[in-house]
């Protein structure tokens, strides 16, 4: 357990030095969703609160509803990963996209949680 905490502390320092906002694993998943964002058409149904999203060229179009106020999408991706799905990212391409990530995945959550001491662990 102590070794694992020390490893997290070292990782956290590396993430801070690199200016990372989310953990590397979260960034990899987010990047894969981000790559899909351009394939979707967004129609705001309630300005600034809700949008309808569908994949361009898919017939019949499968629509997803993104609720910005509730931080929800009708797909299950966000419930499973706590990272914005491609539908949410498509909507957020006009806004701040990292605010939808779970705090557990944001680097700033881990930095204060790990002590800044120079201690060796076996």
From TrEMBL:
A Pfam family assignment: SWIM
Domain SWIM-type: 64-96
Protein name: SWIM-type domain-containing protein
Keywords tagged on the record: Metal-binding, Zinc, Zinc-finger
Organismal lineage: Eukaryota, Sar, Stramenopiles, Oomycota, Peronosporomycetes
InterPro entries xref list: Znf_SWIM (IPR007527)
PROSITE patterns in UniProt: ZF_SWIM (PS50966)
Keyword hit for Zinc: yes
């Amino acid at each position: 357990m102590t070794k694992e905490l020390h490893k997290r502390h070292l990782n956290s320092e590396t993430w801070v030095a690199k200016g990372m906002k989310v953990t590397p694993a979260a960034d990899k998943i987010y990047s894969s969703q981000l790559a899909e964002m351009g394939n979707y058409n967004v129609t705001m149904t309630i300005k600034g609160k809700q949008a309808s999203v569908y994949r361009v060229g898919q017939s019949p179009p499968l629509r997803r509803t993104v609720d910005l106020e509730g931080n929800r999408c009708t797909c299950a991706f966000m419930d499973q990963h706590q990272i914005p799905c491609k539908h949410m990212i498509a909507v957020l391409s006009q806004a701040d996209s990292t605010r939808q990530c779970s705090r557990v995945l944001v680097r700033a959550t881990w930095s204060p949680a790990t002590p800044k001491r120079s201690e060796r662990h076996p």
